Input
Amino acid sequence: MAKLKAKQETFDPDRGPLITPRFAVALALMALGIAWIAYYYIGVRPPDGLNAEGAPHKATGPGFMQDLKNWNYLIGFGLFFLGLIISANKATPLGRGRGVVVGMLGCFLLGLAWICVFYAIANQTDPSLPVFNDLGQKNLFVGVAFMAVGFAFATRWE
Output
């Protein structure tokens, strides 16, 4: 007769704590990266089109972010991906057990979806998807970066 497996507890002390300092830093970096991109896109970047005088709109917001222009996307995505890579450590819930598979497959599928969406809207004369319209061909780098982070999770898979 087969033995029944003991049900795994959510807060099993053998599996490690759910929230660790490393995981908190990873979450903070991911949130900061998303916030950086969102703030640049909504609050700093000049809107598309022309103003009432027929001239292009001017950028608003902090001067240092205006000077960085599209480098703001590199900073935002860099912070986000750094947070994901930090969360692949065994000291975090995503770096052990089933979390590794979730992180790995999630990153692979997000990368694939990002590239597929880019190719679907690439031939439009006026792509209106936020962030995608500014990045152009650099969208491929973002999709491949998601997949590269997926490989960081794959190295933790047992």
